[in-house]
Structures are given as C-alpha cells and as structure tokens.
Amino acid sequence: MQPSQPVIDPEFRRIAFIGAGQMGGRLARLLMREGHELIICDPAASVQKAFAADGAAIAATPAECASADVVIIFVMNGTEALSATLGPSGLLSAIDPSTPPLVLIMSTIMPDEARQIAAGLSQKGVHTVDAPVTGGPILAEQGKLLILAGGDPADVAHAETVLRLMGREVVRCGALGGGLTAKILNNMLGIANMYLMQECYRLGVAYGMPPSSVAAILEKGAGQNFWTHDVGETVANMDVLSSDPDYFVRMVKACLKDWGCAVELAEKVEMQLPFLGGMMATVSDIDSQALHSQWRRFVDLHARA
Q1: What pTM was estimated for this model as a whole?
Q2: Where are the alpha helices (DSSP H) in the chain?
Q3: Are 19 and 74 within 8 A, CB to CB?
C-alpha cells in the first residue's frame, strides 16, 4: 500500500524563500518534503545548485518570487530585507495587486524595518506578518521551532497554516513588529547562553565531568537553558554551526547584529544595557578563528566520549 501524499492547502501551494541559508534552507527543504512547490532566491551558487537539483525553481532576483502564494524573507539583516522587498529588483516591483502573496518576515531585523517593509508592500495589497524563529538548525529540520508572530490578528491567523508546518508552537506577540521585539529579547539572553555554554561544558570536561553530567546538573539548577536540555542535540547544533569556518564567522557577526538590535531598542526608550554592552565588546575582541577552534574541540571531544 502506497503511503498517502500530504494534503496541501491550495492557497499556500507555492512558497518562495528569499534567503535559504542554514535556517531558511532547512525550512525550505522541510516544506519541499511536505509537497510544496518552492522558489529559491539566494545569491550563493551552491544553494541554487542544490535546490535546483531537488526540483525547486531558482529566482535570480526577489522580483521573480512575486508569483508565489507565500514569500518568506530569511536574509541576514534589515538592509538586505529592505532591498529584497522594496528595492529596484525587489518583491514589490513585480507584485500583481490582484493576487498579492502573503509575506512572512522571518529574518531578525528591527521592528521599525518590518513596519517599513509592510507599509511599502501594502501599496499592492500585501499582508505582512513578522515571524522570527528560535530553536536552531536541528529543530528547523524537524519543524519544531518556536515562532514569534506579530501582525494584525486576522493576518497572523491566516499565516498560521504555513507557520505550523515549520514550528511546534506559534506565539502571538501583538501588533506587527511584536514578534521581532520578542525575538530580540530572546536573543539577548540566548546568545549569551550560547557563548557561555561551550566554556561551561569544556571546563567541566577538564575536571573529569562528561558533558552529559554537566548538562544534567545545569538542567536541574539555575543554569537551565536551551543548551542544557539535550546534550546530544546541543553538540549536533554546535557541529552544524561550526562545521564551516566561514559560516561560523558570519554567525558571530550575526549574533553581534542581533545584540545591536537590542541596544537600538533600548536607546529608543533611553535605557542603558551595560552588561549587554560589555558582552558585545568582549565578543567583538575575540578572535573568531580561536573561538571556532574551541567549538570544534568540544564537538570532537563529545564524538570520542
């Protein structure tokens, strides 16, 4: 007996990804496995080649994504997001107002940038939801991310059909930009935990404690966080994030960008964040190659355990 094919909502059959890197690419493949037609717009030739081989359509510019039912923005920063949507070859330039796509902003950018994008796209009848994610590459592959959604309640409800294919839970965070505000707050602490986590594990190993024991203690104490729940998953995430040295350097820069978003949010309400500022200065001064070597040593240690 043949396994049944997944039932695709015809309203969301064709999905475009503008940006298909470590996270966006995994979500795109997840949706391909569910039977969706994919359009991929990414400047990396290796990404284009891999997705084309699997049957996805390749878009040379974001404008070529305008025919999709849903367009997911998963680029690195606000400048790229604004260019991809409102720029000369951006999405807006090719949208047919009679059949506008639903746009989901999954990049971590400033809430004001998301509102600027939404205002521009609304000229052609586009409804926009900001829906950044948290959970890392392993949960992305499994469709178990936490998705933080902001937007008009009707738009978020409409988007949930697609969002729930990618996440274990969709948290409604209020008006447009609310999801991004929540994501920036999450990353303030989450990134700090990520950097401290590998030092904590390595120090424990140096004193004869296997990573699983360190994780078990932290999980039951005040050190509990995303990186202590499942040490195997932690190492798998570390492996993915550090397997390519060049990507690792880009990740470090992205983390600084996300922390910078928190500083910018604080400045808007005249708030000081001295501890965050100190961590940013420390990470900025760290040799990324040395940090990469530390991560790889930990991954290798666990592989031999």
Answers
A1: 0.93
A2: 22-33, 45-53, 78-86, 111-121, 136-142, 153-166, 178-206, 211-220, 231-242, 245-268, 274-285, 288-304
A3: yes
At a CB cut-off of 8 Å and minimum separation 6, what does 302 contact?
Answer: 211, 231, 235
Residue whose token pair is 């904590």: 200
Catalytic residue among 49, 124, 183, 257: 183
Tell me the CATH number at 131. Answer: 3.40.50.720
Question: Strand, helix or coil at 92?
Answer: helix
Beta bridge pairs of residue 41: 18
| Mean pLDDT across 213-218 | 92
Domain count, the chain: 2
Known catalytic residue at 124: no
CA 237 to chain centre: 13
For the stretch 130-184, pLDDT in tens is 999 999 999 999 999 999 999 999 999 999 999 999 999 999 999 999 999 999 9
* Domain co-membership, 66 together with 205: no
* DSSP state, residue 144: -
Query: With helix as H, strand as E and coil as C, how does 219-232 read?
Result: HHCCCCCHHHCCHH
The last residue of a domain, from among 119, 150, 174: 174
d(CA 254, CA 76): 7
Whichever domain contains 287, its CATH number is 1.10.1040
Q: In terms of domains, do 159 and 91 share one?
A: yes
96-to-29, 152, 231 alpha-carbon distances in Å: 27, 22, 48
Reply yes or no on whether the pLDDT at 68 is more than 70: yes
d(Cα 248, Cα 29) in Å, to the nearest integer? 22
Q: Which domain holds residue 198?
A: 181-304
Cα 7 from Cα 9, distance rounded (Å) = 7
Query: In the beta sheet, which residues pair with residue 15?
Result: 38, 70
Give the amino acid at 73. I
Q: Does residue 170 sit in the same domain as residue 54?
A: yes
Domain-located, residue 1: no
